[in-house]
Design brief:
Layout: H1 3-11, E1 13-19, E2 22-23, H2 32-47, E3 50-57, E4 63-71, E5 74-85, E6 91-100, E7 108-116, E8 122-129, E9 132-142, E10 145-151, E11 155-164
Antiparallel strand pairs: 1-3, 1-11, 2-11, 3-4, 4-5, 5-6, 6-7, 7-8, 8-9, 9-10, 10-11
Length: 177
């Protein structure tokens, strides 16, 4: 099995964890609305706990990935992407749509690229989020935990997501080792 296929097969299922993001510099975004959204996210995340929920469906040719960011149970952002795995076994392309609570009138197209580590221990992605280049790194801590890092020119987030299988604790996750 190619490394990118093995990586996503091991990620198949639902993941959830507390989301953290800190501003590390002056917010500079493509538009004033995007800059206000970044500041608003940072403000909300300081005041209230936020949770990132994500799911991976690797059962088809492409991988279906969803993400929801919630604060006080309210979905601030929802994203659905289709991840196309490159034949080289490592690279990938993602395309999808993001919706934000503060912009209900318009979906945003999202696209990016990524690569799976040669030892299948993690992945890195480059995409745009609210008008800013975002680098996402994922490191597999163990079969049930992922360490995420989000980096922009002015923000950084480090957080853990834990996996679940729809309430079936007896179902094991394919191992990467």
């Amino acid at each position: 099995m190619p490394p990118n296929r093995a990586y996503y097969a091991a990620m198949h299922g639902a993941w959830r964890g507390r989301y953290r993001l800190d501003l590390t510099g002056r917010v500079t975004a493509a538009s004033r609305l995007d800059a206000m959204a970044w500041r608003g996210f940072a403000w909300l995340l300081r005041l209230f706990p936020a949770f990132l929920e994500t799911s991976v469906d690797a059962s088809g040719t492409d991988v279906l990935h969803t993400t929801t960011l919630r604060v006080l149970g309210i979905a601030l952002m929802k994203s659905v992407e289709r991840i196309e795995l490159d034949e080289d076994g490592h690279r990938l392309t993602l395309r999808g749509t993001q919706r934000f609570l503060m912009e209900p009138w318009r979906p945003r197209e999202v696209s990016g690229t990524g690569a799976i580590a040669h030892d299948v221990s993690g992945a890195s992605y480059a995409l745009a989020f609210l008008g800013v280049a975002l680098e996402q790194r994922v490191e597999r801590v163990d079969d049930g935990t992922l360490r995420f890092t989000h980096v922009t020119p002015f923000a950084r987030g480090d957080f853990l997501l834990r996996g679940s299988h729809g309430g079936d604790p007896g179902r094991s996750r394919p191992s990467l080792r």
